[in-house]
């Protein structure tokens, strides 16, 4: 890990612990070059995870993308508290991430599985969140109503 002050490539870990149920690692680091101390939060598990898209392409998993999609679904309606909604979205995203590592046999996971995990976790909180998530998903259900053309 690079030093954030002098960009020295070698830093030493002073203290380290798991946070957020083991999905993140908190580390206190010291730079031997400038002697400054700084803190990092690292997620080594998600770094090697790839999402297989419907067209077969591979894309690196980005936790922030998952968080934002959950936050948008949770943060709807008038007079909502963004802070509370962000905490809820973070909690849901962490649970999805945990289940994602269990579901991923290799480091590749299909986007269908990621969306299904998100749907299940959102359904536990509120059914309307889950339905809204699927409605805006690429994998939304193709429903044909009577009299409608396919």
**Secondary-structure-derived class:** alpha+beta
Termini separation (Å)? Answer: 54 Å
Total helix count?
A: 5
* Overall radius of gyration: 20 Å
Mean pLDDT: 81
Shape category: globular
- Summarize the biggest pleated sheet: 3 strands, antiparallel
Q: How much of the polypeptide forms β-strand, as a percent range?
A: 15-25%
The SSE string, one letter per element, is EEEHEEHHEHH
The portion of residues assigned to helices is 40-55%
**Can you count the beta strands?**
6
Q: Could you describe the 3D structure shown?
A:
The chain has 150 residues and is an alpha+beta fold. It folds into 2 domains: 31 residues, no CATH class; 91 residues, no CATH class. Helices cover 41% and strands 20% of the residues. A 3-stranded antiparallel β-sheet has the order 1-2-3, with no helix packed on it. It has a 3-stranded mixed β-sheet with strand order 5-4-6. Strand 2 and strand 3 form a beta hairpin. Helix 2 crosses helix 3 and helix 4 runs antiparallel to helix 5. The longest helix has 22 residues.
Characteristic key phrases:
150 residues; alpha+beta; 3-stranded antiparallel β-sheet; 3-stranded mixed β-sheet; 5 helices; 6 strands; 20% strand; globular; disordered C terminus
Q: What would a concise description of this structure say?
A:
With 150 residues, the protein is of the alpha+beta class.
Summarize the topology.
Elements: E1 12-19, E2 24-30, E3 37-42, H1 44-47, E4 50-52, E5 58-60, H2 63-74, H3 82-103, E6 108-110, H4 111-125, H5 127-135
Parallel strand pairs: 4-6
Antiparallel strand pairs: 1-2, 2-3, 4-5
Helix pairs in contact: 2-3, 2-5, 3-4, 4-5
């Amino acid at each position: 890990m690079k030093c954030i002050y002098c960009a020295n490539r070698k830093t030493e870990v002073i203290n380290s612990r798991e946070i957020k149920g083991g999905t993140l690692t908190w580390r206190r680091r010291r730079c031997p070059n400038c002697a400054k101390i700084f803190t990092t939060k690292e997620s080594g598990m998600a770094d090697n995870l790839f999402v297989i898209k419907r067209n077969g392409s591979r894309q690196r998993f980005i936790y922030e993308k998952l968080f934002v999609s959950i936050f948008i679904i949770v943060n709807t309606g008038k007079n909502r508290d963004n802070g509370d909604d962000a905490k809820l979205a973070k909690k849901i995203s962490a649970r999805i991430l945990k289940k994602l590592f269990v579901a991923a046999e290799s480091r590749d996971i299909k986007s269908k599985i990621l969306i299904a995990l998100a749907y299940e976790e959102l359904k536990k909180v509120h059914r309307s969140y889950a339905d809204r998530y699927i409605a805006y998903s690429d994998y939304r259900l193709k429903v044909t109503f009577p009299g409608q053309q396919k």
